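Kindly go through one protein, given below as sequence and tokens. The question is how this chain folds according to its tokens.

***
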Amino acid sequence: MRWWPFTLRGTGALTLAIASFVIAGETGVVELMFFGVLMAVLCAGSLASLWFRAAPTATPRRIVPDVSTVGKPTTVTVTLRPPSRMMGRSGRWHELADPVFIGELEGDLRWGGAERVATVTYTVTPSTRGTYVLGPLRVVTEDPFGLARRAVRVVDAESVRVAPAQVEVTALRAMTATAGGALHATHTQRGHGVDNLLARPYQPGDSMRRIHWRASAHYDGLMVRQEENEAAPDAVVVLDRDDARWSAGAATAPGQDPAFEAAVATTVSAVAQLSHDGYTVSVLDSDGTPLHEPIEPGEKALLDAFAADCATIVAGGGRSIHDLSRAFARAGSGPIVVITGTVSEADVAALAPIGAHTTLPILLATGASADAFDRAAELGWRVQAIRVGPEMPGWWDDARDQGQRR
């Protein structure tokens, strides 16, 4: 019972005190009365020694990484400092958390070192994307005799954002290499010293992300990288959020529709791979509305920000992919990846005009009617069903095989 302030030993001592009073009253043995008073005073003193002592102080949680990822460990560290050198017996710590965090959330607390501090470190693995609560962190301490205990909240609860899982998409790299992305990426991987030759003075309106700090220190003024990536080929990734494609739960909260979860994870993986391959990636909704600012090649900060934004994305708000072709009136020839739910032959026919704007159209769907994928392949699309569940990344290899049907 968490509300009971006594340990098992303290409960026994208190029971012994009560029993001594009862027996002393029945038998008239004065010694038992004195013994009962001694036990009662000892229990009361142990309890008072905890409740009238200041609680330990704690540093804020240090969460690494800042944005958690589904299936990857997240390390949490809290340093506790006692209010005095007399902390009594070592206690335990316990962290409350939403059920999506899998890990050991309690353990023994040991005060040690010259400053008698205690460090709480644990690792959790989130199982579902979204925004969840971690905490509060409570510390349970005991008096020196181990009779009483006190639970103190030392760190309040806080929200933790969990981004979708990402995988190494080797098959997509093999596909996009034919469109120039991988070749461009090799030209942007320069050696030491070359960056200084491509740096120029900062001008109002330049992105702060393009500041070249090494060149700035060398020239004693703000320098930015030359827009060497402006010629990078463009790629487009479309996430179909049309309500009709997903179950009702997909529009309410992350993690409610396994098919939509697989589609979101696929989107993040595709964007990351295309960016690494040297493309400037635009992410669109099913009606052509941008879901994020364009991600330039190698911009890890933007990739991380996009993954964090996808932690809370839900279905709804987008129109049917039948209207998507209007967004590609001026599109370039880079890859176009359409990620959607179950598609029919009518959907494939509506997407057909998009194929004229790219040399690499890719259709990834969680399901399809009997002839929908065959029809899409005939129209020049690389097609594949997205696997729903833990083995979702396996579709990349199958997509490469399916593309041979073109």
The two ends are 67 Å apart (CA to CA).
